[in-house]
Specification:
Elements: H1 3-9, H2 14-25, H3 28-44, H4 55-70, H5 93-112, H6 115-126, H7 131-138, H8 142-162
Helix pairs in contact: 2-3, 2-4, 3-4, 4-7, 5-8, 6-8
């Protein structure tokens, strides 16, 4: 792979790598370091990249592995704005405040999930990856991913209802 091909196919993935690393680490500095390390690893293996079918999934898998190798001691913190990226906007200030408070509670709950559940829910709900991409990144089977995601969602919902008395049916 030439430098030009690398710049065209890999560098556009830098933002996805950074976003995933930021969600895993909760720290912009660590996310930037991991992003740089991932890009460096990809550059060093550029001659083998033509064999990879899904470069995004491969890059996120490297990101995941570097995270577990270097910064696992940090707890993730989530940027509040990411929880509402797809929201069309609240009709009034109180709705916006309620949504932000709920998002903060969801982030706190996600932080308490076991590593695998936290990772899968982040990849699916924040990174919006498909199940097969999550499988490539984590090395888990599709049925296992569905089960883990279901349990993670159930746990988040359970804690929202039980601990914070928040339900979409209230």
């Amino acid at each position: 792979m030439t430098e030009h091909e690398f710049n065209e196919s890999i560098l556009p993935l830098a933002q996805h790598i950074y976003d995933f690393a930021a969600n895993l680490t909760g720290n912009r500095t660590d996310a930037a370091d991991i992003t740089q390390d991932v890009l460096f690893k990809l550059w060093n293996s550029r001659n083998e990249l033509s064999k990879i079918k899904n470069l995004r999934a491969w890059a996120l898998k490297i990101t995941r592995n570097l995270y577990y190798d270097t910064v696992k001691k940090y707890k993730p913190l989530y940027d509040e704005s990411q929880m509402f990226l797809h929201e069309q906007g609240a009709s009034d200030l109180m709705t916006t405040i309620d949504n932000q408070e709920t998002a903060a509670l969801v982030r706190q709950i996600i932080e308490t999930l076991p590593d695998t559940q936290r990772e899968v829910i982040l990849l699916r709900e924040v990174e919006e990856l498909e199940y097969d991409e999550i499988a490539q990144i984590t090395g888990l089977g599709l049925n296992n991913i569905r089960t883990i995601l279901s349990r993670a969602r159930s746990r988040v919902k359970e804690l929202l209802v039980k601990k914070y008395k928040i339900s979409k049916y209230d």
